[in-house]
Specification:
The chain has a seven-stranded antiparallel sheet with strand order 12-18-17-16-15-14-13, with helices on one face. A four-stranded antiparallel sheet has the order 2-3-4-9, with no helix packed on it. By secondary structure, the protein is mainly beta. A hairpin with a 4-residue loop joins strand 7 (about 80-85) and strand 8. The protein contains four helices and 18 strands. Bound molecules: FE2/S2 (inorganic) cluster and fe (ii) ion. Fe (ii) ion (FE2) binds near residues 171, 273 and 277.
């Protein structure tokens, strides 16, 4: 029996690469959402994601396939050439390429240094957009540092953490349960927590604002000692595992990058929390009817929000 009542692949935007992993003229393979994919950047600089299995006789385009003239994928098996639109452009030993042959293409956006695909189990068009983040690419912000985990779970279950007030005390050793507000706004979920941070100069106010845009893209804005942005993405590899990455940037105060290492210390703490959460996540089940008591967080708000990313009810 599955530990989850909901499908492994929700409807939404999923990161499949970081922008700096794509070099024009180079074909990259990936396996996400239970499918073999190829990713490339064309001669105009646009990123494309297509299925990797060649419709001719099933070769994997990412294993020995090449980019021709900057814009077409040549299959390693019989050298058919495929355009970024999924059409067959050339069969080297035949007069006319087959008009009906189609390689599946994925809707792609490239934003904030990430390449993302839109997945919808009924093939519906994208129903929401991702934000442009104000800090990305700005000179006073450090470039992304990326933390990565492969977790045997599903992100929408893991991410319930944000509203699970009590676990912060019993899993993460917090002294008090955080005070936070959670608000759903269409595909967006905003969770704001305010706290007092201890510093050598006394307590200062701190905040963590977490915003989810759909089922697999989240920003975290940390304020207080030093301003930090994280872009968290979680892409299912298959029914079992999820590729989770946190890409963080720290506001470089006075031209120095993370002068006192405070940003790095915050991230180390988040990394520690992640390692505390993973064994729970990898073994827990998602209970449709949990036994909640007063004092537990706003699970209902979270669960109503997440249901919109599935075409079927469960
Ligand atoms: S399998 Fe790709 S060209 Fe034949
Ligand atoms: Fe946690």
């Amino acid at each position: 029996m599955s530990r989850f009542p909901f499908p492994a692949y929700a409807n939404g935007w999923f990161r499949v690469a970081y922008s700096d992993e794509l070099t024009p003229g180079v074909l990259k393979s990936a396996h996400y959402l239970g499918r073999d994919l190829v990713i490339f950047r064309d001669s105009a600089g646009t990123a494309h994601v297509l299925d990797a299995i060649c419709p001719h006789l099933g070769a994997h385009l990412g294993v020995g396939g090449t980019i021709v003239d900057g814009d077409r994928i040549r299959c390693p098996f019989h050298a058919w050439e495929w355009g970024a639109d999924g059409a067959c452009k050339r069969v080297p030993y035949s007069e006319r390429p087959p008009a009906n042959a189609r390689l599946r293409t994925w809707p792609v956006v490239e934003k904030n240094g990430l390449v993302l695909v839109w997945h919808h189990d009924q093939d519906a068009a994208p129903s929401f957009e991702l934000p442009d983040l104000p800090h990305y690419g700005q000179p006073d912000w450090t470039p992304y540092r990326i933390l990565r985990w492969t977790v045997k779970s599903r992100w929408l279950d893991m991410n319930e953490n944000a509203v699970d007030r009590a676990h912060f005390v019993y899993v993460h050793g917090a002294h008090t349960m955080p005070e936070s507000t959670v608000e759903a706004d269409g595909p967006i979920l905003r969770c704001q927590s305010r706290m007092k941070l201890g510093t050598p100069k006394g307590e200062i106010p701190g905040g963590i604002d977490t915003t989810d845009y759909g089922p697999a893209f989240q920003t975290v804005h940390l304020t207080g000692i030093i301003e930090t942005w994280m872009v968290n993405t979680a892409t299912p590899v298959d029914e079992e595992a999820t590729d989770v990455t946190f890409a963080y940037s720290v506001h470089a105060v006075d031209g120095a990058s993370d002068k006192h290492g405070v940003g790095a210390a915050i991230i180390r703490d988040l990394e520690k929390q992640m390692l505390q959460d993973i064994p729970i996540w990898e073994n827990k089940a998602y209970l449709t009817r949990p036994f909640l008591v007063e004092g537990d967080g706003p699970f209902g708000v979270y669960r109503r929000w997440m249901k919109q990313f599935f075409s079927t009810t469960w």
